[in-house]
Amino acid sequence: MLVLVLWCLFALIRGWANGPLRLLVKPAALVLTWILVCTFGGAVTAMVARSTGWSAPLCSLVGPAALGLIAYQVLCWFGQTVFKRTRDHAEPLTRTIFGVTGAMLGLAYSLFWIWAAVVLIRFAGHFAAEQPAGDLARGSAPDPWVTNVVRLQASVESVLGKRLVDACDPVPPWVYERIDGIARLVASPVALRRLISYPGFQRAWDDTKVRALAADPTIVHDLQQGDYWAMLADPRFWDLLSSPEWWEIVFGPQFDAALRYALEGT
Questions:
Q1: Over the chain, what is the mean pLDDT?
Q2: Amino acid 136: pLDDT
Q3: Angle formed by the axes of helices 2-23 and 25-52, nearest 10°
Q4: CA pseudo-torsion sign 166, 168, 169, 170
Q5: Among the listed residues 27, 63, 61, the one whose alpha carbon sits nearest the alpha carbon of residue 44
Q6: Residue 189 burial class via C-beta count within 10 angstroms: exposed 0-12, middle 13-18, buried 19 and up
Q7: 226-231 contact pairs (CB < 8 A, 24+)
Q8: Cα–Cα distance measured from residue 173 to residue 108, given in angstroms and rounded to the nearest whole number
Q9: Are 157 and 126 in contact (CB under 8 A)?
Q10: 142 HSE (CA, 13 A, CB side)
Q11: What's the per-residue H, E or C state across 76-145?
Q12: What is the tens place of the pLDDT at every residue in 16-60?
């Protein structure tokens, strides 16, 4: 709690010193950067692919990310160069107005980031809570990050109060229910096998890209060991996920039915 109070106090002082216009530079830069990436991201991806010869999934990540980073830094530099700090205004009334509004805006920013961090911790905590059981089932000890995230979530909810956290969390309960289900699915090899055998997915499993991945011994070994990061590093996996049919399976109502089917046997 002391850390949160100090963070809010620091934001108040920083807001007073910078004034509202300089504080608004970064949110405005984020919005403009998002517009630039949406408008020119495809062209930059194609340019990176032609100049480097990298795979399409990697180029689609590197190109827009580099464009966004450069655009954001340039916009922030431009805005902070143009707009004055509170102390740079000559009139005392103007300095007071800029200082008070900047302090209030800085406090609002600090509360927003605390709220966003709490929601992110809850997301990670819900997913990590199911992982130790899966690690034990595979005969390995849980990763330290898993236990640390679960402890961090419990600590945050105990400090702020679970009722307050629940009241301030905008995420619908069904989202956490799906996260819990996916976490149980990832942690259980039995549930994964049941998901693969779900009758409604038969057409998807007959896809040639899926068959190629299923026939790869490296992918099979990574799946059996629960090494999902190694699977995600395979560009064929991303090529499969870019298929509209797979997006419909993951986010459509059929996936909920398949998830229930998979978890019935665990």
A1: 79
A2: 45
A3: 80
A4: positive
A5: 63
A6: middle
A7: 226/134, 226/135, 226/138, 226/140, 226/186, 226/189, 228/186
A8: 26
A9: no
A10: 15
A11: HHHHHHHCCCHHHCCCHHHHHHHHHHHHHHHHHHHHHHHHHHHHHHHHHHHHHCCHHHHHHHCCCCCCHH
A12: 988 888 889 989 999 999 999 988 888 888 888 888 877 777 778
Global model pTM greater than 0.70? no
- Region of residue 5 (left: phi > 0; alpha: psi -120 to 50; beta: else): alpha
CB environment 63-85: b (16+ within 10 A), e (fewer): bbeebbeebbeebbeebbeebeb
Please, which residues have CB within 8 angstroms of residue 122's CB and are 6 or more apart in sequence? 153, 156, 165, 169, 171, 176
Which of 9-13, 35-39, 143-147, 216-220 comes out lowest in average pLDDT? 143-147
Task: Fill in the amino acid letter for 156.
Answer: V
pLDDT at 81 over 80: yes
Cβ atoms within 10 Å, residue 16: 22
Find tokens 């992918």 and name the residue.
Answer: 219
What's residue 31's pLDDT? 93
Tokens 């996916």, residue? 182
Q: How far is CA 134 from CA 117, 137, 142, 185, 187, in A?
A: 26, 5, 8, 9, 4
Q: Extract the tokens encoding 28.
A: 């405005």
Q: First and final CA of the chain: distance in angstroms?
A: 39
- Residue 229 and residue 186: Cα distance in Å, rounded? 12
pLDDT for res 226 = 64
